[in-house]
Amino acid sequence: MSDIALETDDLTMEFKGFRAVNGVALRVRRGSIHALIGPNGAGKTTCFNLLTKFLTPTAGSIRYNGRDITRAKPADVARLGLVRSFQISAVFPHLTVKENVRIALQRHKRGDSFDFWRSERVLRALDAEALALVEAVGLSSFADTLAVELSYGRKRALEIATTLALDPEMLLLDEPMAGMGREDVDRTAELIRRISKDRTILMVEHNLSVVASLSDHITVLARGKILAEGDYATVSKDPRVVEAYIGAGHA
Amino acid sequence: MAHAAAPVDAAPIAAALPESRDAKALHRMVFIGLAVLLAVLPFGLYPVFLMKVLCFALFALAFNLLLGYGGLLSFGHAAYFGMASYVSAYAAKNWGVTPEVAILAGTLTAALLGLAFGALAIRRQGIYFSMITLALAQMVFFFSLQAKMTGGEDGIQAVPRGRLFGLIDLADDRVLYVLVALIFFGGLLLIYRIIHSPFGQVLKAIRDNEPRAISLGYRTTRYKLAVFVLSTTLAGLAGATKAIVFQLASLTDVHWSMSGEVVLMTLVGGMGTVFGPIAGSFVIVAMENYLAEFGAWVTIIQGCVFVVCVLVFREGVVGLVARKLRKPL
To answer: How far does the CA of residue B124 sit from the closest CA of chain A (Å)?
Structure first.
């Protein structure tokens, strides 16, 4: 298998004449934590939605493990081991914490569940594994709580546990720290570092200190194009990056 | 694919209560209570009235499976109820088949119609989905009005009840009542099982947050189509049975107002509760029967009941009880 987990060529997304993403060529190395940053309106979220197939690009191609996924459906991409998170904490609010994780295990272990004639008792076989994942993110005491009742930080932790249940090869995290307090940020950063073992992670993140401490490689987007690439030290010194963030004149 | 990232909080309140072991025990009690009621009621109430309630209750249960657990508001469920009723009546009258075969033929028709219509409607979400189901149902209504087999304005009348399995004469209301009660109870048990199956678990997840379910690798449209077909099939079972009970299939059964009525029954009883639609259909059918002397006023009274219901207890009669007990019903 090649060294590159995910790559795009000339990735372009046009909305009625406006190019939100313009000819982006991204290379995400296997096993790395790769951050996608940029000022507001740089096209990060659009780019992210293209990679997770929630949008279909107007031009260009996306390859995952050498396989063209440009036209693949989002559910199918997830089945290939490329799993995304959402900016708004994505839990199933009216399922319990355990059930949230179990629904992911259910897909991963059983495949499709069209067996409407069988009792849900068969799912108990997955309970032990679900509870282990719940414990791994420190939610053991909330296992039977409805997800809707969790605090923001805990919802994010639950979301990560749910994602991990799929044992994905690659994770796409959409602003994992958005709206978090200082304490939650540290805990989540630690969690991401822990799960990054044997996995490839691409994340969009605003919190630059998080990006600095977590990521191996950074791609800076501005106006839909790649402005700079490299590690944090390289990128943060790049005058074009400074200008894009602070604005011309201040640089 | 343009999915909004923000999940819509469409889950009914009553369904938000956690399923627990003592909830299961409570459900078992309700099932036993219902079975006892089904056995006792025909001694006090008119069997034909009860059979009408049971047919509509099954129809509403089927509808609620789609709305309350699939999160899909179909506004054309009369099409499946009505077409099944026509096919069942036609088969019993013109082919001379036994009633169980007639009912099966009607049910199968509703399943196939549901598969075809569902495959089209499921491609759109929210109000567009509802509108497509309505438009398709209107086409079925037009077909029923014009086609020869449905008898136009007359419908199919004087349908023989026949002999069950060629043996048991169903002419006696009390005998037929047993059959209808069994069909109803079987349908209820099946729906309960669907809700509490691995499939049902996925449905709840999709209703709660579809984009997230997709991102976990669930091909959600297939699940929605599956629950749509299950719902239309059971609606068809209700319609096909009703045709045998009343020995009649008519335009009323395919009219859009029938689609509206089933929404009403479900909401009054409690959307997203297992047992709500039964209570809802009992209330609505009882109103139609016992207030019949008021004529057109029944519709107005129903309208008022509906408005009060939505304003005062949004979660329906059974939903209200469930909230008081803090257990899902």
So the answer is: 16
